[in-house]
Design a protein that fits this description.
Elements (H helix, E strand, L loop, with lengths): L22 H15 L2 H21 L8
């Protein structure tokens, strides 16, 4: 068995070269994989924290975060 950089072995796993996939298919595969694994509760908490930090920063430089 060759062990050079072009010869990798993955036991029990099928593989596909990403370059062999059309870009729209690769993007869809990646998006589905990410979406399936993300915890929506963690995402919601992160977005709330991000909004609170944005508001705090705006206030700290003299802007009203509620002004349009």
């Amino acid at each position: 068995m060759s062990t050079g950089p072009g010869h990798r072995s993955f036991s029990g796993t099928s593989t596909t070269q990403a370059e062999a996939l059309p870009l729209d298919v690769l993007a869809a595969v990646l998006k589905a994989a990410i979406t399936a694994r993300r915890d929506t509760r963690v995402l919601a908490a992160l977005l709330e924290r991000e909004e609170a930090e944005r508001r705090r920063l705006l206030v700290s430089v003299g802007f009203d975060p509620d002004a349009d």
